[in-house]
Amino acid sequence: MSTDKNRATAAAILPLVGGPDNVTSIAHCMTRLRITLRDRSLVQDEALRALPAVLGVVEDDTYQIVLGPGTVARVTPEFEALVEEARAATPVTPATPVTATGPTAPTPHAITAEDLQAQGTALKEAQKARNATPFKLLLRRIANIFVPLIPALIGCGIIAGLNGLLTNLGWLPAVVPALAAIASGFMSLIAVFVGYNTAKEFGGTPILGGAVAAIIVFPGVAKIDAFGQQLSPGQGGVLGALAAALLAVYVEKWCRTWVPEALDVLVTPTLTVLISGLVTLFGLMFLAGEASAAIGTFADRLLATGGAFAGLVLGGLFLPLVMLGLHQALIPIHTTLIEQSGYTVLLPILAMAGAGQVGAAIAVYYRLPRNGSLRTTIKSALPAGFLGVGEPLIYGVSLPLGRPFVTACVGGAAGGAFVGLFNQLGVAFGSTAIGPSGWALFPLLDGKSSVGVTLAIYAGGLAVGYLVGFAATYFFGFTRQMLTDLNTDPDTTAAAAEPSREPALT
After folding, report:
1. How much is the mean pLDDT over the chain?
2. Distance CA 374, CA 355 (A)
3. Catalytic residue among 29, 156, 255, 409
4. CATH 3.30.70.260, applies to 1-93
């Protein structure tokens, strides 16, 4: 039954994106089906958003359909299968977008959820154009290296948390070593996966990137001295692996230019691994190790000495960072912190931004009791919002409304300050993986205190974010004119069809 449901969702999506002939590539991340299109004009955005399984759509470097965690991993293979089946059969003519006909809407025109979604899409497009700078494109490529690792980080993180719980309780002592091995195996080799993905992303041979990065975790490096210090296995971590694999890409490309074709198969991989390996051992491992240690020290001191203020700033500014595309710079930092201490202390604080967004959306729902269209959008997007999938609420509600986006950031700042304060008081904790947020982060929390205390503080932060986001939006999220324009039932307005009647301004 579940397979039938996922195939039905994929079958409903396919004609609305222009049919199989309009799809050139298919991929997915934690929450989104990402497709590359031949002709963007063939996509029927509003019909897509109306599908029950679709939480929202976002256009970036690819066309992204938000389906939510779990669902997207099941729908994507069905979508790929449908595309392949259609191409193997009679060619399908791409669907023609539905265009509106008939007279324009009567005056006054109530602002509906569709209007706000269109505004959100326009804002996203404008932001996308502004984000297409070399630096931000580089950050996006770096993010592409780490995003495929998230499922393993989540799985191993949850197992590590379960292992810690069993250890503290003294239960199942025979099982604990097995769980420790399962949880730690991936993390012990994460540098290899980072190296592989780095070479793949930047146009090199992936296995060569992995081979060079594997040097970092090889136990034999403990016999090597660099800069007067003995190296240690894993020194430099994911940052060293990224740098080593990136160097390998450039060495490989240089070799492809100068090495004769007859010798390429022997000389190019040898020189790539040799040159990049030597530079890694006698330079990059030391430098990346110092950088990684500095990141860990800075994060610990930041929250230990100014946790409340740091949490306020991080929680309040995370949504704007997402809008600017700068949040991608945090992904290798999160991974470095997880590699060093087992968890990232930053993610629970940044997750408070989503809590503020949820609180703001609930306030919008209650402030606009007669806007059925927008209230329907909020009701359908809130469950995903509670689980940390915020795109439908951001691009469908708060961002196009303007003020509620700002008040949502206020809620995130309050929640971040709450969590940061407890870090400052010595109750440090974090997430053992990146990706999930909201309620989905509970199974991944770990820290220096008991599980109960850690969960209670995070839940308290969410509650503060919800309440402050709600209150700030309810009392300060709307001007009088906004309430006049938005708080109208579009169906009633259209039925009245009285062009001479103007909304009263009070």
Report:
1. 84
2. 20
3. 29
4. no
